[in-house]
Specification:
Elements: H1 3-15, H2 24-43, H3 49-59, H4 65-70, H5 76-83, H6 86-94
Helix pairs in contact: 1-2, 3-5
Length: 99
């Protein structure tokens, strides 16, 4: 595991994020990608601080390491959109959120 992967895994463990599924290599890489995207969410000035925990919880529903890897070049908003329920999409659209 590289240093960057160690940081991602440590952040996930400390925050009690759901475990990722996939091979060891995939989960190590995806842990870094996920940690980077959560960090991007947490520092995004467009996201009201009150909404960050809700958006983080939505992002963390995705536990398939392969999906994190396949979407590594997408912004966190696109990843979140991929795991929204239809009701959540409607709510976000009504709020004129990030999409």
């Amino acid at each position: 595991m590289g240093d960057h992967d160690t940081v991602g895994a440590a952040a996930a463990f400390a925050a009690r994020w759901p475990a990722l599924t996939g091979s060891d290599k995939q989960t190590e890489w995806a842990a870094t990608i996920r940690a980077d995207k959560i960090r991007a969410l947490d520092t995004d000035r467009k996201v009201p601080p009150a909404d960050r925990a809700r958006y983080r919880a939505i992002l963390l529903r995705q536990t398939d390491a392969g999906v994190w890897i396949d979407n590594r070049r997408n912004p966190w908003q696109a990843d979140m959109f991929g795991v929204l329920t239809p009701d959540e999409r409607a709510t976000l659209s009504a709020e004129e959120a990030l999409f």
